[in-house]
């Protein structure tokens, strides 16, 4: 009988120990959840192309990943397709602290939702809004594109280059115009072809347009700013033995025999900095509109590939870069 009593006592003690462990585990889990919940919640609505564009969307996403890894935020994202408004609405309804939208293509959708939720803070990349709860980051991308034009002109043996854009929106018009003016600063008589694909997500169309620009029009260097459409263009330019300039991220790995350089808008850095500023300033932005360019290292070129500048060319490049950065050279934009 004593043995059975001892067994029952031992079993009871074991059960109590198991229950205690479960309770402590639950408390620990709850504490972790609470800690996570106290972090700033950020939602981002990507362009309709979404992740994997090896360009604008991926760069923006990387900036938030860095902030998340440093434990200052938690974030979620949406690849909205044609319905960005619904994505903004979802983030606003679930009371994210900050909602980010990429490119002026989604401005109308963001503004519709921002007007309905005046206490919700939004951040728009690559455009500006008059609504008080929409802050913005925009880039003087024309300055980096001007430098891309300088390199294109120096690399061209035909004095015939091209610009291949995705959709003809104001941001890309700035790219185009900066590029043109950079080319003509070096070679005033050069020809600059301009083609817009009307699509950021069609690699086959990019291949087709690149072929036409090279074989039918005669361009031997093409500046490509077209998302996944541009990826197709870059690979085709390499196949045809001509030169290309990439955009937004270092795209050298996409066409290593063809890429001369890539024009960077440091979207990842700017978003990372903006999010940290928002967190540190009690969920507000000290500036409603942030505009950055060469002087702030927000735009620029990657290292050069497949081309070696002469001493004279290098000096010309550095002189023009300094004049753009200081504002001595003004790029004309006709919006």
Key descriptive features of the protein:
disordered N terminus, 335 residues, 12 strands, alpha/beta, 47% helix
Describe the structure.
- It is a single chain.
- The protein is α/β, with parallel strands linked by helices and 335 residues long.
- The protein has ten helices and twelve strands.
- It has helices at 2-37, 56-69, 84-93, 107-116, 141-155, 170-186, 203-216, 227-239, 267-280, 311-326, and strands at 40-45, 73-78, 98-102, 121-125, 134-139, 160-165, 191-196, 221-225, 243-247, 259-265, 289-292, 299-301.
- The strands form two sheets. The chain has a six-stranded parallel β-sheet with strand order 2-1-3-4-5-11, sandwiched between helices. Strands 7-6-8-9-10-12 form a six-stranded mixed β-sheet, sandwiched between helices.
- Helix 5 (141-155) packs across helix 6 (170-186), helix 5 runs antiparallel to helix 10 and helix 7 (203-216) packs across helix 8.
- The protein is globular.
- The termini are far apart.
- Mean pLDDT is 89; it is low at 1-9 and 13-36.
């Amino acid at each position: 009988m004593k043995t059975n009593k001892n067994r029952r006592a031992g079993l009871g003690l074991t059960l109590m120990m198991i229950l205690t462990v479960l309770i402590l585990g639950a408390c620990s889990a709850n504490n972790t959840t609470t800690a996570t919940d106290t972090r700033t919640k950020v939602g981002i609505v990507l362009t309709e192309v979404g992740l994997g564009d090896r360009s604008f969307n991926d760069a923006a996403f990387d900036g938030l990943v860095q902030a998340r890894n440093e434990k200052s935020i938690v974030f979620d994202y949406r690849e909205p397709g044609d319905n960005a408004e619904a994505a903004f609405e979802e983030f606003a309804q679930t009371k994210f602290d900050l909602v980010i939208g990429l490119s002026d293509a989604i401005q109308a959708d963001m503004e519709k939702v921002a007007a309905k939720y005046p206490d919700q803070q939004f951040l728009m990349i690559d455009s500006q809004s008059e609504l008080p709860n929409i802050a913005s980051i925009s880039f003087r991308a024309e300055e980096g594109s001007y430098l891309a034009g300088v390199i294109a002109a120096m690399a061209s043996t035909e004095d015939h280059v091209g610009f291949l854009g995705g959709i003809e929106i104001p941001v890309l018009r700035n790219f185009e115009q900066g590029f043109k003016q950079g080319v003509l600063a070096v070679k005033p008589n050069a020809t600059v072809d301009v083609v817009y694909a009307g699509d950021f997500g069609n690699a086959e169309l990019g291949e087709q347009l690149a072929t036409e620009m090279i074989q039918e029009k005669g361009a031997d260097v093409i500046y490509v700013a077209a998302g996944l459409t541009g990826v197709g263009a870059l690979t085709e330019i390499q196949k045809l033995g001509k030169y290309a300039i990439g955009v937004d991220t270092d795209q050298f790995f996409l066409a290593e025999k063809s890429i001369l350089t890539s024009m960077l808008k440091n979207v990842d850095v700017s978003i990372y900095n903006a999010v940290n500023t928002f967190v540190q300033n009690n969920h507000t932005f000290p500036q409603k509109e942030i505009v950055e360019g060469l002087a702030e290292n927000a735009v620029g070129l990657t290292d050069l590939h497949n081309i070696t500048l002469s001493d004279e060319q290098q000096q010309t490049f550095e002189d023009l870069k300094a004049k753009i950065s200081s504002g001595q050279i003004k790029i004309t934009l006709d919006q």
